[in-house]
Amino acid sequence: MASNPEGMNELHHLTMEADDGMDVLFVCPVEGCGRRVVVRRSGELIVLDKGDFYALHVGGTNGLEISPAVPRDRRASA
Questions:
Q1: Angstrom distance (rounded) from CA 52 to CA 55
Q2: Contact yes or no for 1/30 (Cβ under 8 A)
Q3: Where are the domains positioned within the chain?
Q4: Residue whose C-alpha is closest to residue 47's, from 31, 32, 28, 61
Q5: How far apart are CA 18 and CA 39, in angstroms?
Q6: CB of 28 closer than 8 Å to CB of 57
Q7: Is the pLDDT of residue 6 over 70?
């Protein structure tokens, strides 16, 4: 298990398990996590299993990329 550069949350790399041309199933292979998401090529993201809610999940394949969106501290940007 790796940490992100800020050392706050673990970084999990999703792997593609299935692709039917319209939908892509990504799963997290990290033991104890079990996150599963479907990414529709239209842009929709469906979470099937949350897995480790606090881990940052990334991954991708031809034309699709999942990257973490980490909210910035509002005080820092004010």
A1: 6
A2: yes
A3: 2-59
A4: 28
A5: 11
A6: yes
A7: no
